[in-house]
Amino acid sequence: MIIGYTTGVYDLFHIGHLNLLRNAKSMCDKLIVGVTTDELVSYKNKRSVIPFTERMEIVRSVRFVDAVIPQDSMDKLAMHDRLKFDVMFVGDDWFATPKWQSIEAEFAKRGVRIVYFPYTQGTSSTLLNSVLVQLRNESQTKEQ
User: Is the pLDDT of residue 62 over 60?
Assistant: First the structure.
């Protein structure tokens, strides 16, 4: 049995998230998804729109997902020690970065493959959030 693992905030769930989960599941027998806690999101100087418990439930309801766990640490190797996954799925914006080259080297020693998926062009939670802010501002301007 091939166990796959991926992580994300999964805020403002969109087609890019669904594509990643669908593609990941097609490459493993069991897909475990780590959903980033609100505390870890804030550590990165960001804030999610959807609360953690709701994001967990949204991801849990996706048919490609077999298990959902909290991601409360950025330590991917510690998570591997806990879950013993065979392959990790990551967005290609991390490909060939020094951080991920180091993680990849450590995972290679453990026999874990890293698969980089391309980001879905034209959509992201950050983009959706900025569009929502812009629409709210335009709506408030029209009301005045």
Answer: yes
